Amino acid sequence: MGKISNQAVLEKLSAKFGSKISLSSEPHGLLTFEAGREDILEILRFLKEDKELNFNFLTDITGIHYPEKELPIGVIYHLHSFRNNVRVRIKVFLEDANPSIPSATPLWEGANWMERETYDFFGVNFEGHPDLRRILNVDDMTVFPMRKEYPLEDPNRVDKKDFFFGR
Amino acid sequence: MNQPVIINNQERKETTTLNLGPTHPATHGVFQNVLEMDGERIVSGVSTIGYIHRAFEKISEHRPFYQITPLTDRMNYCSSPINNMGWHMTVEKMLGVVTPKRVDYMRVIIMELARISDHLICNGILGVDAGAYSGFLYLMEKREHIYEIYEEICGARLTTNIGRIGGFERDFNDIAWAKIKKFVKEYPPVLKEFEELFTRNRIFIDRTAGVGAVDAETALNYSWTGPILRACGVDYDVRVNEPYSSYEDFDFDIPVGTTGDVYDRYMVRNEEMYQSIRIIEQALEKLEKEEKGVFHADVPEIYLPPKEEVYNNMEALIYHFKIVMGEIDTPKTEVYHCVEGANGELGFYLVNDGGRAPYRLHFRRPSFINYQMYAPMSRGMLLSDAIINMSSLNVIAGELDA
Amino acid sequence: MSDIKLAEAPAGIEGSGFFATSFDKVVGLARANSLWPLPFATSCCGIEFMATMGAHYDLARFGSERPSFSPRQADMLLVMGTIAKKMTPVLRQVYLQMAEPRWVIAVGACATSGGIFDTYSVLQGIDEVIPVDVYVPGCPPRPEAILNGVLKLQDLVRNEPMRRRNLPEYKELLNKYGIQ
């Protein structure tokens, strides 16, 4: 376990941001909470630059899609404080139509490709990102394949027709 | 593109655009870099990736938990057992399964062998890129021996699919133990010989020292992990920071570099191989004291029963059916588990909704995150240095593109 | 006595100071035993190919000593690993750049059929874009399997009629893939 407890991290955050942080929990010992898209950059900056917390390392940025929820697109940040050996997970949920969120690239250069990947898969628009293009998929793709409504298999393929199996 | 570059109203020398990849033999995989060259020197570069994007994360949402193991094999195929074990441990963490010490130590042996096989390929190829083929041939022979150990344990060489959720599918046989012991004894002298070829070699030092040097702050800013971060002088290793699979029982050192250049990365990887041997030796010693024949946790609801029992025992038949059909009960939760992969922190972020497949599975792939600094850091480098720099980053295409 | 093994001579008429056989067979023999491979390695199978090229399995025994990374000088295109849709035009380009006669081996399940990756981003077998001569199964195939694939191709090459590449059937085959 780290030198600073999850409780202490949460208290410090609550003191600073109050009700902007909601729904905190600790699944498998990893402090998790939700935040709004307006505050996310402030929260990340505070976590990174606070002398005591010192979450200096951005482990990962990824997305998630819950089609039945009111705010279906989620962006999930994993931060790590090397000095305290504590991790924290922050979730931000966005609307479906045009999900957009401030980019974390001013804080970490490493956020660049992670955000491009999230854009590629979920179509999240990261405001202020220097070069928001598709990264893994072909450039002329029009859909965001990791959203739940898109099928795994290529819908255009013909080699799985019943005809080929004598049916 | 060959327009004259005008700076301060003065025409500079023309730059040429060079397309390196995606099938260039010097890039060891499918990476494309469009480089703007001023003679031999790189002015700027743009990396394009995704040439073997296989949609692992989308497939994972359609497969039961145990069927995701073969996918992890194909991520970092130079050290697939680490990926396998990482995934098994993620699911075990989610289900709250505690594995016996003997399983942990067996896993440690397999993971450290995988680390050796990955590092030796990286360092061997580094030599090839510097123009020294012999070191590669020395080490490749030893990699075959590691593959033979895998073969003895699981039947496969490369995409191993070792183990199951909850342990191993079978105990290691006597030949496997003998081969592991033989390897532990035989490998250090070969590595020593390899080091003698390179470490104090004037040409090798000239080619590598000072190339691609990165300071610790920049490396952390780019979220680097693994040997290349340690070469910058940051002693971050998941095996020590968040020990998994009983790594806390072992006594080993974490080598760190100072300058973060290619030479330091080479030295860190070499030293890590010695440390891995040390860990395996300790594990073999510890295993002597453990009860023989234990190779999985006692969790019948998630660990497949032996085939004879399935045919003769009702309970085993039910479990077998439920496991194979992916009908095991799983909690609604989310879990992040990471292991020290050969290239850095390999993380599995699993969101489960209690269904037969993960709701969302994200792989934190070290190669993907490490590689994004490649284009910025090659600015101002010679092309030949950029090539050697790429091979020392040890980017594996399968892990990069997922 | 040297232990170098010579390729067996084709059937023909032998007499003192002469040996007569058909030109086809001589050319086939020469081609089959000097196939220059172009390794188009993208993923896991490429690592097994490295083992095949290495000292342990030694592909060079079969006349494929020199891996030609330039498509212009290669005879045998070995496609190893998953070909994503993003990679497809590159693969096709490489095939088009090769000079006739050219042969293709699809190594591994992914190159053959897409393998376990039945997804939106993966080409379901390279035979959708280029003609393939030999398929090697396995995920990944063992080095012995890759060697066997090369030997199978050698059989094809050895017995290929001289005029095959000029026949209308061959033109038709290429036309099917949109290659002129």
TrEMBL record, chain A:
Any idea where the NADH:ubiquinone oxidoreductase 30kDa subunit domain is? 36-154
In short, the EC number is 7.1.1.-
Keywords carried by this UniProt record: Cell membrane, Membrane, NAD, Quinone, Translocase, Transport
Pfam families, per the entry? Complex1_30kDa
This protein's GO CC annotations = plasma membrane
Q: Which InterPro entries match?
A: NADH_DH_suC (IPR010218), NADH_quin_OxRdtase_su_C/D-like (IPR037232), NADH_UbQ_OxRdtase_30kDa_su (IPR001268), NADH_UbQ_OxRdtase_CS (IPR020396)
Annotated TM spans: none
> What's one GO MF term for it?
NADH dehydrogenase (quinone) (non-electrogenic) activity
Q: Where is this chain primarily localised? A: membrane
Question: What is the catalytic activity of this protein?
Answer: a quinone + NADH + 5 H(+)(in) = a quinol + NAD(+) + 4 H(+)(out)
State the membrane topology.
Answer: Peripheral membrane protein
Q: Where in the cell is it found?
A: Cell membrane
* Subunit annotation: NDH-1 is composed of 14 different subunits. Subunits NuoB, C, D, E, F, and G constitute the peripheral sector of the complex.
The protein's job, in short, is:
NDH-1 shuttles electrons from NADH, via FMN and iron-sulfur (Fe-S) centers, to quinones in the respiratory chain. The immediate electron acceptor for the enzyme in this species is believed to be a menaquinone. Couples the redox reaction to proton translocation (for every two electrons transferred, four hydrogen ions are translocated across the cytoplasmic membrane), and thus conserves the redox energy in a proton gradient.
Similarity comment text for this entry: Belongs to the complex I 30 kDa subunit family.
Q: What is this protein called?
A: NADH-quinone oxidoreductase subunit C
Automatic annotation (TrEMBL), chain B:
What are the UniProt keywords, alphabetically? Cell membrane, Membrane, NAD, Quinone, Translocase, Transport
Give the superkingdom in one word. Bacteria
- Cross-referenced PROSITE patterns: COMPLEX1_49K
Q: Which SUPFAM superfamilies match?
A: HydB/Nqo4-like (SSF56762)
What catalytic activity is recorded?
A: a quinone + NADH + 5 H(+)(in) = a quinol + NAD(+) + 4 H(+)(out)
Do the record's keywords include Cell membrane?
yes
Does the keyword section mention Coiled coil?
no
Gene Ontology terms for molecular function: NAD binding; NADH dehydrogenase (quinone) (non-electrogenic) activity; quinone binding
GO CC: one term? Answer: plasma membrane
Record domain NADH-quinone oxidoreductase subunit D: where? 129-401
Could you tell me the membrane topology recorded for this protein? Peripheral membrane protein
The places in or outside the cell where this protein is found are: Cell membrane
The protein's assembly and partners: NDH-1 is composed of 14 different subunits. Subunits NuoB, C, D, E, F, and G constitute the peripheral sector of the complex.
What does the function comment of this entry state?
Answer: NDH-1 shuttles electrons from NADH, via FMN and iron-sulfur (Fe-S) centers, to quinones in the respiratory chain. The immediate electron acceptor for the enzyme in this species is believed to be ubiquinone. Couples the redox reaction to proton translocation (for every two electrons transferred, four hydrogen ions are translocated across the cytoplasmic membrane), and thus conserves the redox energy in a proton gradient. NDH-1 shuttles electrons from NADH, via FMN and iron-sulfur (Fe-S) centers, to quinones in the respiratory chain. The immediate electron acceptor for the enzyme in this species is believed to be a menaquinone. Couples the redox reaction to proton translocation (for every two electrons transferred, four hydrogen ions are translocated across the cytoplasmic membrane), and thus conserves the redox energy in a proton gradient.
Similarity section: Belongs to the complex I 49 kDa subunit family.
Q: What is this protein called?
A: NADH-quinone oxidoreductase subunit D
The gene coding this protein: nuoD
TrEMBL record, chain C:
Topologically, how does it sit relative to the membrane?
Peripheral membrane protein
> What role does this protein play?
NDH-1 shuttles electrons from NADH, via FMN and iron-sulfur (Fe-S) centers, to quinones in the respiratory chain. The immediate electron acceptor for the enzyme in this species is believed to be a menaquinone. Couples the redox reaction to proton translocation (for every two electrons transferred, four hydrogen ions are translocated across the cytoplasmic membrane), and thus conserves the redox energy in a proton gradient.
The entry's protein name is NADH-quinone oxidoreductase subunit B
Quote the EC number.
Answer: 7.1.1.-
Main enzyme class = translocase
Against InterPro entries, the record matches this protein to: NADH_UbQ_OxRdtase-like_20kDa (IPR006137), NADH_UQ_OxRdtase_20Kd_su (IPR006138)
Report the NCBIfam families cross-referenced here: nuoB_fam, PRK06411.1, PRK14820.1
Q: Which family does it belong to?
A: Belongs to the complex I 20 kDa subunit family.
What is the gene called?
nuoB
- Matches recorded under Pfam families: Oxidored_q6
Cellular component terms (Gene Ontology): plasma membrane; respiratory chain complex I
Keyword list (alphabetical) reads: 4Fe-4S, Cell membrane, Iron, Iron-sulfur, Membrane, Metal-binding, NAD, Quinone, Translocase, Transport
Q: Cite the HAMAP family for this sequence.
A: NDH1_NuoB
The free-text cofactor remark is: Binds 1 [4Fe-4S] cluster.
